[in-house]
Amino acid sequence: MIPSLCCRDKLQDGGTRDEWRFLLAGGAHKPKELPNPAPDWLSDRSWGDVLTVAALPNFADFAEDFLNYIEGFERLFDSQEPHHEKLPGKWETDLDDFQKLLVYKCLRADKLTNAFQDFVANNLGQRFIEPQTANLNLVFKDSSPSTPLIFVLSQGTDPAADLYKFAEEMRFSKKLTAISLGQGQGPRAEALMRSAMERGKWVFFQNCHLAPSFMPALERLIEQIDPDKVHRDFRLWLTSMPSPKFPVFILQNGSKMTVEPPRGIKANLLRSYTGFTDDYLNSCGFKTPEFKHLLLSLCLFHGVAIERRKFGPLGFNIPYEFTDGDLRICISQLKMFLEEYEEIPFKVLLYTAGHINYGGRVTDDWDRRCLMNVLGDFYTPDVLVTDHEYSPSGIYKQIDPDNDHSNYIAFIKSLPINDNPEIFGLHDNANITFAQTETFNSLQALLLLQPKSSSGGGKSREEVMEDTSNDILREVPDPIDIEMVMNKYPVIYEQSMNTVLIQEIIRYNRLLLSIKSSLHDLMKALKGLVVMSQALEEMSNSLFINQVPDMWGDKAYPSLKPLAAWVIDLVARVGFMKDWIDNGTPPIFWISGFFFPQAFLTGTLQNFARKRIVSIDTITFSFKMMKESASDLKTSPEDGCYIRGLYAEGARWDMTESQLTESRPKELFTEMPIIWLIPESNRKPVLSGIYECPVYKTLTRAGSLYSLALFSRSPLYREVDITLVLFSRSFELEI
Description:
Layout: H1 2-11, H2 17-25, H3 44-53, H4 62-66, H5 70-78, H6 91-94, H7 97-107, H8 112-123, H9 136-141, E1 149-152, H10 160-169, E2 176-180, H11 186-199, E3 202-206, H12 215-223, E4 235-240, H13 248-253, E5 255-258, H14 265-274, H15 278-281, H16 288-307, H17 324-340, H18 346-357, H19 365-376, H20 405-413, H21 429-448, H22 461-475, H23 482-488, H24 497-526, H25 534-544, H26 550-553, H27 563-583, E6 588-590, H28 597-612, E7 619-625, E8 641-644, E9 646-649, E10 652-654, E11 659-661, E12 669-671, E13 675-681, E14 690-696, E15 706-711, E16 723-726
Parallel strand pairs: 1-4, 1-5, 2-3, 3-4, 6-8, 14-16
Antiparallel strand pairs: 7-13, 8-13, 9-12, 9-16, 10-11, 14-15
GO molecular function: dynein intermediate chain binding; dynein light intermediate chain binding; minus-end-directed microtubule motor activity
Domain Dynein heavy chain region D6 P-loop: 145-258
Protein name: Dynein heavy chain
């Protein structure tokens, strides 16, 4: 919210609404098309943003002038702190601090959050970017018996301990009554509150979001508090996760607080070891050294499991809420097994921790494989050696078990605040992905806070929506004649691809019809010819902020692209289908262009099964990476098919060595070569040298499409952060 206020203040000084809109939502069209001048370091997506920003008046010649300062912009791109670098040429003086943010968004979106911090500090002051510590004493002074004090919970936080400590300081610990709300607790909570109002006690209602049925009653109780009759010492404390069921009246009339959970391996380790004592660390008899080693290893794994969540799908496909309870039960089991077994049962420890305690929360098979591989680096005989290193840098390591509790605390405090991706088993590029995600989430939050009426320079909302609608209507093609396609490609037993094509055309036609009809209705509504319905209102809001409207997304293929890139992608997909119709079955299939790729894969297997007269249930794919380019492969293979359009995330394919290898710095995605999908009956899997790589439709990694067996001579350090994603075009990666 602070960047929004700061930027709004600058916009009143002469900035334009169009520049602010580009910063938040991106541009809608490119005024000109120019080839990428530096494809070796500048991604096509970044170059597309450069072309798009040139539509703004203050950036009219930015794209052309970019060619004159290639070295200067490359220096900015390679810098560790690009927001502290001077822009090349006239752009350092011609652009103000706000307009420079647009350049950072084009070239280094991962550092835009840092640039925001500098922008706010320079214009509003340093105190607006520094975290504020929670002080219950200050909040309490501003409260009253009729004003509830509300803790808005974040994942991994519990303010109960802070409240109990504050109650002791205020000598109210014996007058504080806490109750965790849930089913059947409503009448008891109401009785406690009425009693506390009369006797001047404190009432602490925890987890209000778990008792939505009690919220109306709680709202009435607070409304009925008479400031003249209620005891002056009475206070009502509430905790709740963000919930639509929480009464607005209570929020408006209460004092709201929130506490951020500890972030980073260091903070998590410190929280874990704060609860230990020397007596506990030495409570395992003659196996105390092993217990100390494995305890540190287990606490470190707990921090890694929690912090991998910040990397989004790179960490786990699903963001699991691992808790301190998972760690506590693992520690209890560790101590029990050490005391009962002469030899350390690592297999049992791995199973109970990985498959039961932590694994009990894991619902995705690939996440389970990832979790077990990560746990295997921490629950192993190797960690029983002093100075064992958990990461290549050696920052995270075992220490001498003769150390006492204070030495362990000192060692933890010596660890860096900011974690290196290597401790998570991730490539350095993971930090870039995390920073970009944080930037886009911040911009999305700012976008939702914008008012629906515009002031200052630039076009009005109605003009922007009308221009966007006209642009889309011009670019999106008309539906394809399905009868013509069915006559040209009839359903026949020998060729299942004809059925796949017809099904794809039906799906695309449904989407194209929805786009065309809804845009025409919106244009009429903007002119006042028809009533603006709720659906059209939501659609117009999406067009304004460069997002795909829900009424289109519900009928479309999975995609995370913003609207402008989504339209280009749709046009390319329909073009692929038209080329198939006009020129016959393509020698190389663009798998990303399919509405439903699973049908295409099944059709390929079905063709092979009918040709060889074998059961389709016994057929699976083997894979061959082709060294030939698309221009060299003019005909389809005898069995199977060639596909293109897959991108690797977390690794790259080495064409020289024909194997998976590490990603290059700042190269988040790499295009895979053309792949030959070869159907085989009763194929025997290769047990060594093969990485089974999942394939997903989008970067959210939801619902594995299938897995691809890729050759890798040595096992890579990380596991499931290596995936293949169906991208439509390399210059429009999804966000």
